[in-house]
Amino acid sequence: MENRVAANSHPLQFDIASSANKEVKISLTCNSAGHSISQRQTFGAALREVENECRRIYTIEDSDFSLTKLMNKVCEYFLKMDSGPSNKIAPIILDTPPKSCQNDVEDTSLQPNYQNVGVKDHIIPQDVNVASKENIKLLEFSGSLKSRNMEAVLQKRYPIYLNDITRGQESVEISLVNECSNIELPDFLYIKNNLAHDDAQIVFSLARISDRNCCSQCRGDCLSSALPCACAAETQGEFAYTREGLLKEEFVDECIAMTREPQRKHFYYCEICPLQNSMLQKGKKIKRCEGHLTRKFIKECWFKCGCSKHCGNRIVQRGIQVALQVFATPEGKGWGLRPVNALKKGTFICEYVGEIVTNQELYDRNKERNAVNEKHTYPVLLDADWGSERILKDEEALCLDATEFGNVGRFINHRCYDANLVEVPVEVETPDHHYYHLAFFTVRDIEAMEELTWDYGIEFGDKHHPIKAFKCKCGSKYCRSNRKKLS
Ligand SMILES: C[S@@+](CC[C@H](N)C(=O)[O-])C[C@H]1O[C@@H](n2cnc3c(N)ncnc32)[C@H](O)[C@@H]1O
């Protein structure tokens, strides 16, 4: 075997080698870490186990799927690529992308070259001749998804496939795939939970949770008890969730009605709106408050409650449970989010996670970003309960900014009016509505790989808004950007 490539940065030693007489050999060496291999264990049985696991994880329906065939394909592909011009680039696949990311075309030269930078946190640039091991550079991929070193590589080619953009922080892996456009990798650091910026005042204290709105006497699962406990008080004495872990149909419908139907929308208007004013250029004054949409809250059981972590009234706080994928949208909206499997109406997708900043801080950041034309995600104002207490000052009102630190929620694109997600405010740690979690739930059954969207509530004609509205490509027949009237 003359040409040998090894991905030996990985705990497993993975070698692929070819000889002059067109033989290709893949070898995988694994450290058995003290386990002895008995005669009773057969390689065939292990293969079948892994194949079943792959079918389940990657939802492979093809009954012919076999790892041996897959390895054979890799060898064939390796040989074909190698028989081109001497400096032809050969693909290196360290992990097989799921079927949804694979190209079915016969011509293997058109097949995607997936560059894996996920689990191993390394990328192998493809502009190296695989025959020469010395030429292979493993570019460090640490912290944010994009590093300077990677930029050159990534700007040149797609598709790209990353196993897990969460760096193992979520209980499910969230892959990223670019099959169609030449867009840059997002530059941010994945965080699972909101992080408070220095100036944001959030007080979580046991004293704030009174015995009245906490179920300290409950044990196990509150949803199994005959009567709803104190934690259901916020939702009129009924739990918001079903025993299957879905948001109840009536709750979803009520949320949709409150955001979509003009007659059901409840706005709070303040006289001099600190939120609107802080968004204006200094010196200018807005004439009237644009209104704050009041919404239905969910209250989950919290740390002072006696029930278990598996209680059915703790959905959002358990984090993401469904398989999601970040993908490059073909319509030119940048990255978007989609579920790998079909989902039922009322399924919790994820929270919108970011840096918790004051309205004042957000204003300062946006001014700086606009000055240098820097990209930012759409910020979320935590104003769902605006006006029920005293009006907060700019230095007190809170927002979520997911531009530099955020979770997968930052990839959900906007759709006017008929989006398939609704955002619901959720009390998790504190009854103080000054700070809450914003959770996304599906408003109808969703097909596997259908893009997930929410209505940002943007008015595209709003000249006062500090963030320049994008040209909407949502494709909805009710698109507000195209000024079509709602029927
Ligand atoms: C919260 S981010 C969503 C993720 C974003 N697409 C990305 O690549 O990171 C919001 C930004 O996505 C883009 N976007 C979202 N919805 C869009 C739409 N309907 N049409 C065009 N661009 C959209 C806009 O650039 C917007 O500022």
TrEMBL record:
The record lists the organism as: Erythroxylum novogranatense
- Residue ranges constituting the Pre-SET domain according to the UniProt record: 214-319
Q: Which GO terms describe its molecular function?
A: histone methyltransferase activity; zinc ion binding
Record-linked SMART domains: PreSET, SET
Where it sits in the cell: the answer is:
Chromosome; Nucleus
Query: Which keywords fit this entry according to its UniProt record?
Result: Chromosome, Metal-binding, Nucleus, Transferase, Zinc
- Which InterPro entries does the record associate with it? Pre-SET_dom (IPR007728), SET_dom (IPR001214), SET_dom_sf (IPR046341), SUVR4/1/2 (IPR025776)
Q: What is its main location?
A: nucleus
Q: Which Gene Ontology terms of cellular component type are present?
A: chromosome; nucleus
Q: Where is the SET domain?
A: 322-457
Under which name does UniProt file this protein? Histone-lysine N-methyltransferase SUVR4
Q: Does the keyword Metal-binding apply?
A: yes
